[in-house]
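In this supplementary section we document a worked example of the pipeline. Step one takes a protein sequence of length 166 as its only input; no multiple sequence alignment statistics are reported here. Step two produces a three-dimensional model, which step three serialises into C-alpha cells for compact storage. The input and output of this example are shown verbatim.
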Amino acid sequence: MFERFGEFDSAAEINETAVNLRREGDSDSLKVLAEENGIDSDVLQAFLDGDIIYLCDSMSAAVGKLEVESGRTDCAEIMEDWVEYIKAGCFEDPEVAAAVRRRGKSLKGCIAEILKWSFKNQHNVDKEIMEAAGVPAGKCTIGIPGTATVKQIITRYYLGKAGLKS
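The serialised model returned by step three reads:
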C-alpha cells in the first residue's frame, strides 16, 4: 500500500517529503507520494503550481489514507458505513484525524476490532424471525453493533480511549 514512501505518521511528514520533492523538481515522485496517500490530483497540481504551500492537512491526510485502505479492502454494505463513520470522525475532531493517520493504525485493524465485538456480543435470533426469513437452522445468532457502539469502537481503536463495555 505504501510501497515507495512507506507509511507516514502525520500530515507534517507527508508535507516535509512533498516540499523536498518539489524543491528538487521531482514531480514524478510527488505524483507517487500523492497517489500512495490518497491526495487528490487537483490538490497535487495546485501544490506543484505553487498555489498552495502544503500538500495536505491532518484531515485530508487521514481521509486520503482511509480512501487508499478502503480501495484495497473488500468493504461492502455495513463496512462501507463504518468507513464513513471514521471519515466523519476525522472531519469532526482533529485528534481523530491525527490518530487515523498514525503509523500502525489501519482500517483493517479497526474493522477487526468491530468484528471482535460482533462475535463476542452475538444474540439469538427469535425462531419466528428465522421462520419468516426461511432460515432452516435450529439456532441463529447475530452480533452487529449499532451506530453508537461502532463509533465507540472506532474511537477506542484509533485514540485508545476506554469507555466501551464489550
